[in-house]
Amino acid sequence: MTPEQVALARARVPAAFADPVSKRMVRWGIWIALILWIAACCAWFDITPARIASGLGNLGVIVGLMIPPSPGEHWDEIAKSLAETVAMAFLGTFVAAIIAVPLGFLGAGNVVTNALFHFSLRRVFDGFRGIDQLIWALVFVRAVGLGPLAGVLAITVADIAVLAKLYAEAIENAERRQVEGVHATGAKPSLVVRFGLLPQVFPVMLAQALYFVESNTRSASVLGIVGAGGIGLSIAERIRIRAWDEVAFIIILLLITVAIIDWLSARVRVRLIGTREGGARQ
Predict the structure, then answer these.
(1) Mind listing the pLDDT tens digit for each residue in 155-199?
(2) Which of 15, 33, 125, 276 is most buried by a 10 A CB count?
(3) pLDDT tens string 84-135
(4) 96 inside domain
(5) Does 152 reside within a domain?
(6) pTM score above 0.70
(7) Could you tell me where the DSSP H helices lie in the chain?
(8) Residue 50: which domain range?
(9) Rg of the chain's alpha carbons, rounded to an integer?
């Protein structure tokens, strides 16, 4: 294009060459407000370079004390606590997934078409999802006492609403033609759900439940700190007495356990669901 043509185009469509001054001012205002907000938060939380440098130095000392990791003299206690953590995660997720299935169907707009009921149930899901597992653990420790039962109940209650919402969204995204085909045969609504919706969403439900088992294994290690059973109590006790080598050993065991669970869940998904390349296995 010649300079004359560029000038003509700039005169006709100025926004294609540069944003209007008002838009640029708004953009700069947003950036300035963001920077000021971050600076205010740093001042509020007393985040300073000196404090960060001191913290990194202390962290380096702790890491040095963790090497080499050592199990100490409590192999049996660590193994029992780790097994308790895995059992809590599995049982809590299993119960939550079972309860979440019917709730997911009730929360799906293409299954229950009553707008008021659908909206109300989804808000209940949102309310329960807003409460962290650790809060539920504190509640259930007070209700049922110390031990893994409080941890199982905390995981179950915290995960029911999350899984129900995920299941409801998967059901709403299911292919309509398969549902309509089952409905066209004259099947009852329960059979339409059984043969039209469930086969489509079951792989998604299973994959999400397996992921939650892995995630809850990590979460259960934190719940033990407040007395809800599991390896968290062992970690907290060793941090309290500054046995950092044993803390490192427990963390490594926990990482290995989570990796094994992830590998097993992947194998289960391939076995029950199949692979994209090869299709479902029989």
Answers:
(1) 999 999 899 989 988 888 877 777 778 777 777 777 777 777 778
(2) 125
(3) 889 999 999 999 999 999 898 888 887 777 888 888 888 888 888 888 888 8
(4) yes
(5) yes
(6) yes
(7) 3-12, 21-44, 49-65, 75-107, 115-129, 133-144, 148-172, 176-184, 189-192, 198-223, 231-240, 244-272
(8) 3-65
(9) 27
